[in-house]
From TrEMBL:
It comes from Algimonas arctica. Part of the 50S ribosomal subunit. Forms a cluster with proteins L14 and L19. InterPro entries: Ribosomal_uL3 (IPR000597), Ribosomal_uL3_bac/org-type (IPR019927), Ribosomal_uL3_CS (IPR019926), Transl_B-barrel_sf (IPR009000). Residues 235-258 are annotated as: Disordered. The lineage of its organism: Bacteria, Pseudomonadati, Pseudomonadota, Alphaproteobacteria, Maricaulales. Pfam families: Ribosomal_L3 (PF00297). Methylated by PrmB. Belongs to the universal ribosomal protein uL3 family. This is Large ribosomal subunit protein uL3. One of the primary rRNA binding proteins, it binds directly near the 3'-end of the 23S rRNA, where it nucleates assembly of the 50S subunit. Keywords: Methylation, Ribonucleoprotein, Ribosomal protein, RNA-binding, rRNA-binding. One of its GO terms (cellular component) is cytosolic large ribosomal subunit.
Length: 258
């Protein structure tokens, strides 16, 4: 997020969360609103990028618990030096040098406040191979008057002898979805610091289980009452009850490691 404070341009870190699905909650007036539930899953600061060493200022955040046996030795050593458990997903967030957070800090859901505007980025749901009507909202060909079989085709895609080719980028049938998209100016409905959940009004890109990057909105009115450089603790994050692994699976994985 950017906002003017003492004539300086400030930028906070974002959060890395996993999409659990959608549900509904009720506001103070008794109206129900559709929200997307995002789980931080032990989001922690894994590394710092400094202008002196790396040429830019950023924080590398990790989320999700990865199996140790599936992590390379070099990565295990890196996580060990940071004092964090191996993470499934790592993402960098650009920050201003004044908003650095210590390595090993566990990010809290209260990093965002209810009513705040945020931007959510993720990989959209893959649709596979789709026709031009579904992929680009084409109208299709006529139902009669000489059209047979090709009612849902995209029609002509080029010209005659000159230039005699199809231009790059022409809207045609092809792979649909599974691309990175960002929804801007979403509203934070609620936060649950104890469970590590952020509830966002509306939908966000991605299917259930997708990784979502949350950042302060870059457009519109900027909030000025946000925690700086963020809301975090130096204690190890607790396992989320929403996606806690069954005890049987935990025992089995422990037996495999032994």
């Amino acid at each position: 997020m950017y906002f003017m404070k003492d004539n300086l341009l400030m930028q906070r870190s974002g959060l890395l969360a996993r999409k659990l699905g959608m549900t509904r909650v009720y506001d103070d007036a008794g109206n129900h609103i559709a929200v997307t539930v995002l789980d931080l899953q032990g989001c922690q600061v894994v590394a710092q990028k400094t202008p002196e060493r790396d040429g830019y200022a950023a924080l590398q955040l990790g989320s999700g618990e990865a199996k140790v046996k599936r992590v390379s030795k070099a990565e295990r050593e890196r996580f060990g030096k940071a004092g964090v458990t191996p993470k499934q997903k790592l993402v960098e967030f650009r920050v201003s040098p004044d908003n650095m957070i210590e390595v090993g800090a566990a990010m809290s859901a209260e990093h965002f406040v209810p009513g705040q505007k945020i931007d959510a980025s993720g990989i959209t749901v893959g649709k596979g191979f789709a026709g031009a009507m579904k992929r680009h909202n084409f109208g299709g060909l006529r139902a009669t008057h000489g059209v047979s079989i090709s009612h849902r085709s995209h029609g002509s895609t080029g010209q005659c002898q000159d230039p005699g080719r199809v231009f790059k980028g022409k809207k045609m049938a092809g792979h649909m979805g599974a691309v990175r998209r960002t929804l801007q100016n979403l509203t934070v409905a609620r936060v649950d610091a104890e469970e590590g959940l952020v509830l966002v009004h509306g939908h966000v890109p991605g299917s259930k289980g997708a990784w979502i990057e949350l950042r302060d909105a870059v457009k519109g009115v900027k909030a000025t009452d946000l925690p700086m450089p963020g809301k975090f603790t130096m204690d190890a994050p607790k396992a989320s009850k929403a996606k806690a692994a069954p005890a049987a699976d935990a025992a089995a994985s422990k037996g495999e490691e032994e």
